[in-house]
Amino acid sequence: MKRLVIMFLRNFYVLPYYFVKLMYVSVSKSYAKKYNEEEVFQFIRKITKRANRGGFVKVEYHGMENLPDKNGYVMFPNHQGLYDVLTILEVHPHPFTVVMKKELMNIPLLKNIFLALKALEIDREDIKQSMQVIMEMAKQVQQGRNFLIFAEGTRSKNGNKLLEFKGGSFKGAMKAKCPIVPVALLDSYKVFDTHSISPVTVKLYYLEPLYYEDYKDMKTVEIAKYVKEQIEKKIAEVEGK
């Protein structure tokens, strides 16, 4: 976590302001009366961009044209580490929230970012609770919210190689009949999951989305396999250049 320290030190002069405001928008019941979802999201993006610059992290992104025209879609990236959500936060143009494992709520600041984004906590040990969260996600997607969920369930801890994508992660998208956007992340693990503080470029690719007509006759395990294969194909293509 050396890079996290660098991020803090290089933004020390603005930390008090951002910290106080983040606490306010994440825990105050009155913040919704003053800030709408778009304003909160842009504030979180501003924090993310400052942190990235301070930590010598550059995000190179591609495929913006693949994002659906209307809100109400779910992104499925590969999961490399703690930095993954921050990668997407920097470059994603529309507000989104996250389905996250409950353990992350024990990490200071990350907890407040997730609270501000109105993330849904999932208990991977509780099948009933997990399904309730997935169904709640489906409901919110139908209402026009965008979500991000890691179908691997946990970070791969193996660089740019993927773990198996779990079919259950796609049940919410299928119920919502919404677009599914595969997202390929490369080298995101280098930011927080190594001991280096050297400059790093994280690459992000929004891949061609699957619409309901594309996957309505597929089983969730088949969707999971397809999405994983598309991400692996893009990573292999980029690494082979």
Describe the structure.
The protein is of the alpha/beta class and 241 residues long. It has a single domain (2-239), classed as Glycerol-3-phosphate (1)-acyltransferase (3-Layer(aba) Sandwich). The protein is 45% helix and 15% strand. It is built from 11 helices and 7 strands. The chain has a 7-stranded mixed sheet with strand order 1-7-6-2-5-3-4, with helices on both faces. Strand 3, helix 6 (110-116) and strand 4 form a beta-alpha-beta unit. The model has no long low-confidence stretch (mean pLDDT 91).
Tell me about the biggest sheet? Answer: 7 strands, mixed
The whole-number mean of residue pLDDT values reads 91
Put simply, the count of helices is 11
First-residue to last-residue Cα separation:
30 Å
Count of individual domains: 1
Strand numbers in spatial order across the main sheet:
1-7-6-2-5-3-4
Helix content: 40-55%
Determine and state the CATH class.
Alpha Beta
- Rg over alpha carbons: 17 Å
Number of strands: 7
